[in-house]
Design a protein that fits this description.
There is one protein chain. This protein is an alpha/beta fold. Helices cover 34% and strands 23% of the residues. The chain is built from six helices and seven strands. A seven-stranded mixed beta sheet has the order 3-2-1-4-5-6-7, with helices on both faces. Helix 1 links the parallel strand 1 and strand 2. Helix 1 runs parallel beside helix 6. Bound molecules: 5-O-phosphono-beta-D-ribofuranosylamine. 5-O-phosphono-beta-D-ribofuranosylamine binds next to helix 1, strand 5 and helix 6. The site of 5-O-phosphono-beta-D-ribofuranosylamine (GRF) has 16 residues, from helix 1, strand 5 and helix 6.
Amino acid sequence: MVKINSCIFISGTGTNLNALINNSRNYNFPINIRLVISNKKNALGLKIAKKFSIPFKIIDTNNPLFERYILNEITKRKINLICLAGYMKILSKGFLKNFKGKIMNIHPSLLPKYKGTKTFERILKNKEKVTGCTVHYVNEKLDSGKIILKKKIDVLKKDNVQTLKKRTQKVEYRAYSEAIIKVFRKF
Ligand code: GRF
């Protein structure tokens, strides 16, 4: 099957990246991961890219020209889908207009609830009983683009930030791939 050339943007541990790479190796999975872009040179996720021999670029978002550099890389490699996976930088309107409907993100809450950071802390503080994750398209507003898919989990009485994060991330790994299949697989 002809797969969609994709690039994954990371800033941190890259566990979602790891899950996406594993699934992308399946013949029937709609995307190929051609490039990983990190804005942090020490991001652990870069080790995952190396392990799987996926080309990666470190593009520092403190550089005012960073979006131009990103654009160069993704044009050069004919990338048609960008998946943000823990990428801690908001992309400008100007950048996003080049990729309308072609940038996705995963967020560790049931959007529109708990946009932004410190998600697990706020969910626990508010004594939510159910939470989860959301895969959505990216627009110029934080965590606000059209929702593709959500997955729910229960918040347990004994949960703390670490346990809730771990269980949420476990469903994220399935959710991101399912969202990609939902969007791209043609039956
Ligand atoms: C994920 O929990 C995702 O929801 C959020 O950032 C985290 C990234 O984790 N946007 P990882 O780098 O994939 O391990």
